[in-house]
Amino acid sequence: MVNPPGYWESFSLAKAHLFYGEPLSGRGLDAAEKWKEELAEAREELASKKRKTKERSARAVLSVNLGKCLEKIAPALPGFSYDCHAWVDHQA
């Protein structure tokens, strides 16, 4: 009987379907194929997250830059009646 860390119940090693030095077959082959499928799905998900992060970052950069330009142009437009001198970045 073995009690692996993190498990509450012991189990018999005879029921573990261990293999060593022989080609995968049966349950071992099924487990390896399932693991490969899960790994491929995880890689696709990671690639999607990376792509979305880059897109979101690019959009944020454009938004910030456009906002900075509009902050400088807006006070010169007719009908703009707000005092926004404190808003303007004088260092740029």
What does this structure look like?
It is rod-shaped and about 85 Å long. The relative contact order is 0.05. With 92 residues, the chain is mainly α. 51% of the residues lie in helices and 0% in strands. It has a domain of 64 residues. It is built from one helix and no strands. The N and C termini lie far apart (72 Å).
Sheet-strand content, in percent, reads under 5%
Mean pLDDT: 80
Helix % is 40-55%
Ranges where pLDDT stays below 50 over 5 or more residues in a row are: none
Shape: rod-shaped
Biggest β-sheet: count, sense, barrel?
none
Helix count, DSSP H or I runs of 4 or more residues? 1
Give the topology string: H per helix, E per strand: H
Total strands: 0
Radius of gyration (Å): 30 Å
Secondary-structure class: mainly alpha
Spatial gap, N to C terminus: 72 Å
